[in-house]
Amino acid sequence: MEATARVVSVVGPRARVTCEERAACSACGSGGRCALRWFASSGRAWLEIPAQAGDRAPLQPGDTVVLSIGDGELLRAAALAYLPPLLGLLAGALAARGLAGAGEGAALGAALAGATAGWWLSRGLARRNPPRFSVSLAAGDPH
Question: Residue 75 and residue 55: Cα distance in Å, rounded?
């Protein structure tokens, strides 16, 4: 999957970019919220990338770049974002149902607690191991 982005600012060794066109899921360009970006970046409307890769000149505000991510990496990131909360939800409900005398309310509460724990786990894992992608200058960018 590829998405075109524009460099908004450069702060030290990091550049902030925003999506300019719709990606495969249409969340970037439409102003929608991407769940993967939300997990990794606390809901910001931009993404931080390295300002310099290899021997090319550092990125400057206004540069157009192409962000590329492999299908396998995209699948890994989606699994990391969605599976822990789902598994926590199911495990919590099953654990509560297994307890003697636990009613529907206890099962619901345990399911919500499990989903919340899974969400926090997913968020922490995504921050420690964000999706890997490549950055290249867009064709026709004079920089």
Answer: 30
Q: Which two tokens stand for residue 3?
A: 């998405």
Say what angle helices 104-128 and 71-98 make with each other, to 10 degrees: 150
Number of separate domains in the chain: 1
Range of the domain at 119: 2-137
pTM over 0.70: no
Strands 64-68 and 2-11: antiparallel
- Residue 91 maps to a domain: yes
CA distance 115 to 3: 31
pLDDT per residue as tens digits for the range 90-112: 999 898 888 766 788 888 999 99
What gap in Å lies between CA 29 and CA 50, rounded to an integer?
21
- Closest by CA position to 140, among listed 28, 4, 29, 13: 4
